[in-house]
């Protein structure tokens, strides 16, 4: 059930009002470790990197600073992935299917002027200029884990605001049960849009309560700067508790609909990619296990150490409630 709450007028599922105990405990333990001076080398280096991620930026693109986020779970206690890795190992099939293709093929991608069209079951549909979207709510820094369905993960300091801020602004009607996200498919700029690897445009979708969860992020930047083209400039979705493919890049349309919308990966292989796509170590992909993951930057090859994948990518305290009573093997 959705309730209107807080002086920012955001809609939240009632359960997310409560500070999740697990998150609280994690942060308290970290603070204690640091105060007692017994924080291990890993933690010290994390803290160092953290300070760096907060203050320094790569200096490649225009600055886009983000303020402290009030959203529980918005700051992962993980060492952020190096900017170089986060911008050279990408999935953005419009620009190619190799991990290095997006960085190489998106260098001339034109992201201005840019508009995002809002349509469907809303009181305020229309074309929203990128510049207006950017200013719609305060930009926040959110350090999220991103878990790709392929079995690797990264930790990225995004800059953006809760998607719910935009949703509230456009005033969905009672018929809006799902949100569909449509991304750019421009064959003149995106070489693989002429190919048939996916049914273009790349689309994604969320249930309304998922879209309203404060962790669902509309991202405009990362590492304190505007988004690099290969990471989904100028604006993308980031849903940290779902497999990476739900986080659609370079959004051009957001549509409020009554029925569960089709999604690009579900259309490509329905038995492999469901609508929900919540990160779940207990539900294997038909062709591989989802129990573990490789953190990019921690070394690869034969001696790659793998981490245990966490339920909802570690965001269970915040989002588990959204799926209470659902069979997650059926709703994969
Ligand atoms: N438009 C579009 N969005 C997309 C994709 C894509 O191919 N096209 N790939 C998805 C996948 S599979 C992942 S894992 C993430 C990767 O985001 P990153 O390159 O910024 O880490 O983007 C997602 N968003
Ligand atoms: Mo992915």
TrEMBL record:
Enzyme class at the top of the EC tree: oxidoreductase
Reaction equations catalysed: L-methionyl-[protein] + a quinone + H2O = L-methionyl-(S)-S-oxide-[protein] + a quinol; L-methionyl-[protein] + a quinone + H2O = L-methionyl-(R)-S-oxide-[protein] + a quinol
Top-level taxon in the UniProt lineage: Bacteria
Free-text remark on how the cofactor is bound: Binds 1 Mo-molybdopterin (Mo-MPT) cofactor per subunit.
Amino-acid positions noted as binding Mo-molybdopterin in the UniProt annotation, renumbered to this chain: 90, 93-94, 148, 183, 231, 236, 247-249
Necessary cofactors: Mo-molybdopterin
A Pfam family: Oxidored_molyb
Post-translational modifications: Predicted to be exported by the Tat system. The position of the signal peptide cleavage has not been experimentally proven.
EC number, as in UniProt: 1.8.5.-
Gene3D superfamilies: Oxidoreductase, molybdopterin-binding domain (3.90.420.10)
Entry's Gene Ontology molecular function annotations: metal ion binding; molybdopterin cofactor binding; oxidoreductase activity, acting on a sulfur group of donors, quinone or similar compound as acceptor
Domain Oxidoreductase molybdopterin-binding: 109-265
Physiological role: Part of the MsrPQ system that repairs oxidized periplasmic proteins containing methionine sulfoxide residues (Met-O), using respiratory chain electrons. Thus protects these proteins from oxidative-stress damage caused by reactive species of oxygen and chlorine generated by the host defense mechanisms. MsrPQ is essential for the maintenance of envelope integrity under bleach stress, rescuing a wide series of structurally unrelated periplasmic proteins from methionine oxidation.
Protein family (similarity comment): Belongs to the MsrP family.
Quaternary context: Heterodimer of a catalytic subunit (MsrP) and a heme-binding subunit (MsrQ).
Protein name: Protein-methionine-sulfoxide reductase catalytic subunit MsrP
Lineage of producing organism: Bacteria, Pseudomonadati, Pseudomonadota, Betaproteobacteria, Burkholderiales
